[in-house]
Write a structure and sequence with these properties.
3 strands, 47% helix, alpha/beta
Length: 137
């Protein structure tokens, strides 16, 4: 895979007092810039909520009668991973939040036979044929 920027730009409204505090910390060398400060706050939020995230994924997996592979963040589906899934009766569904990359060297027929559905809140990087087959953008 090419060396790509895997970040997304978002727009956030911050009240004046919070922004002033962020700028103060940036100006005094605690953070490189506003983005650095906000990213650190987001990392801390995720770390604090990790047990909740894990609990929800486990519960969703139990509630779902089909075999589901979950990911959060980034998942690259390689030919090796696809072959391993197919040897173990495959996964009926691939679900996640973030970025799913389906390596261009994955065998499409094996993928279609192994993974019955894909549901991603985020982005899918795959061939047009794969995206069309699963109805993803």
């Amino acid at each position: 895979m090419k060396n790509e920027n895997l970040s997304e730009k978002i727009s956030v409204n911050v009240n004046v007092a919070s922004l002033a505090a962020i700028d103060f910390l940036v100006d005094h060398g605690f953070y490189a810039n506003r983005s650095d400060a906000v990213n650190q706050a987001v990392r801390e939020l995720i770390a604090r909520e990790q047990s909740t995230i894990d609990r929800i994924i486990v519960q969703d997996t139990k509630d779902n009668s089909s075999r589901t592979e979950w990911f959060l963040g980034e998942l690259t589906l390689t030919p090796e991973k696809l072959a391993a899934w197919s040897r173990h009766a495959g996964k009926e569904k691939l679900c996640g939040y973030g970025l799913l990359i389906i390596d261009e060297s994955c065998d499409e027929e094996l993928l279609f036979a192994t993974v019955k559905a894909i549901s991603v809140q985020g982005s899918v990087r795959a061939s047009a044929t794969i995206k069309e087959h699963y109805g993803v953008k």
